[in-house]
Amino acid sequence: MIPLHHYLIVSAILFAIGTAGVFLRRNLITILLSIEIMLNAVNLTFVAFGRYRGDVDGQIITFFVMTVAAAEAAVGLALIIALFRHRESLNPDAFTSLKW
Amino acid sequence: MPEVVTFYLLAGLAVVASALVIGQRNPMYSVLLLIVSFAALAGLYIQLDAPFVAVAQIIIYAGAIMVLFLFVVMLLNAPQEDAAEWDRTHPLRRPGIARFGAALAGVLILQLAYALMRVNELEAPVGSQTGGAAVSSVRELGRVLFDRHAFAFEATSVLILVAMVGAVVLARREGQS
After folding, report:
1. Cα(B128)–Cα(B143) distance, integer angstroms
2. Is the pLDDT of residue A93 over 80?
3. Confidence (pTM)
4. CB-based burial of residue B140 (10 Å sphere; 0-12 exposed, 13-18 middle, 19+ buried)?
5. Which of A32, B8, B90, B126 has its Cα between 20 and 30 A from that of A84?
6. Quick one: closest CA in A to B17, which residue?
7. By C-alpha distance, which of B101, B43, B24, B19 is closest to A13?
8. Which residues of A are less than 8 Å from B116 in CB distance?
9. What ipTM was predicted for this assembly?
C-alpha cells in the first residue's frame, strides 16, 4: 500500500509544474494547459484524501472540478480565438490594453 | 510489490509528461503530452479505488477537453511561440529580481517539505484506516451525488449553459448578429 503523503507529493509536484508553466510560457494555449495541470493536481489530492477517509466526497468534488474545467476550457478558448482575430498573436504580453 | 512499482511508474510518467508540456515550444506537442499525463493520472485513480473517476478522466479530459484544445491549435495555425524584443527586455527578466524570485521559491519548497515531514499519520498506507470501505462503488457515488449534493449538481448545469452561451458570444465574428 502506498502512504498518503506520496500522493500528496506527486500532486504538489504537478501543481508546481502548472504554476511554473503559467509564469514561464509566452503562449496563451500553453498557459491554459498549465491551468489544466493544476486542476488535475488538486483532483489527485481530493481523490487520495477521499480514499484515506473512506468516503466518496472526494470523488464527488472531483466531478465538479472536471465540470468547471470543461466550462473554463470552452470560455478560455473562445477568448483566445477572439483575441487572435484582433492581434494575430498568442503572446499574452501583446494584450496589454483594455480597449482598442 | 507490483503495487508500489505501478505507483512510481504512473507518478513518474505523469510528472515527466507534465514537465515536457511546459518545455515544448509547439503547443501541438504540449496538448498530446498532456493527454499522456492525464492517462497516467487515470491509472493513479484506479489505484485509489476510484474507477469511475478514472473513466470520467479519460472521457472528459483526454476525450473532450483535449480535442477542443487540438481544434483551436489547428484552427489558429500559430504553432511557434514568438519571442519578441520586448519579451527579453521584460522588467521581471532582470537578473537581480530573477534571483530574488528563485530564492523565494526555494524557501517555499523547504517550508512545504518541512510541513509534510512533521505530519506522522500520513505515513499510514491509504485505505488501511477504513478497512477497505466501499468507496469504489458507483451506486454509492450516485446516491451521494443526487442526494446530498443535488443542489450543486443542478447549479453545475446552469454553469455549463452559461459557459456555452458565453463561448458562442465570444467566438462570434464582429458585425454578425
Report:
1. 24
2. no
3. 0.85
4. middle
5. B90
6. A14
7. B19
8. 5, 8-9
9. 0.90
